[in-house]
Amino acid sequence: MTLHYYEFDREAQKLILKYRDDDVLNESHKMRVTAAYGLERFWGEHLRLMCKGENTKDFKKGLFWKAVWDKLVDTMKIAGIEVPNDNIERNGRNFSTPGIDRMTQKFWDSKKFPIEHQRVTLAVLTQLCDSLVWWTQRYKKSND
Q1: What backbone torsions phi and psi does residue 90 show, to the nearest 5 degrees?
Q2: Interval 57-80: pLDDT, tens
Q3: Alpha-carbon distance 66 to 89, whole Å?
């Protein structure tokens, strides 16, 4: 068995720098809290934010959440774990209910997404969120 560095901290720093100018970094604290509630809840948060309209601050927050989720999926793929990540169809500002249902069923299906993979993925998400919070505290812009 060999050790592989997944560079969570570096990837978190890149995400924070990428979204710093969008004034959405406080979301990293919410992400860390949400990770405790499970993968499906973390994944679904971008949908709630993005359905408020593309010209809103919440939409930008949703893009940040989605970028973090996509980074998690990419990282887990390197580790040999396939995390559900369907693109959900949109109808205007709303996401497809059947699409959401299909996606969430994948989280709950222990044959397609084994519980061991879920636990490892959740641990990685927690570590990634811890790093996001760290870099947020370092790079957040002053309100002055």
Answers
A1: -120, 145
A2: 999 999 999 999 999 999 999 999
A3: 15
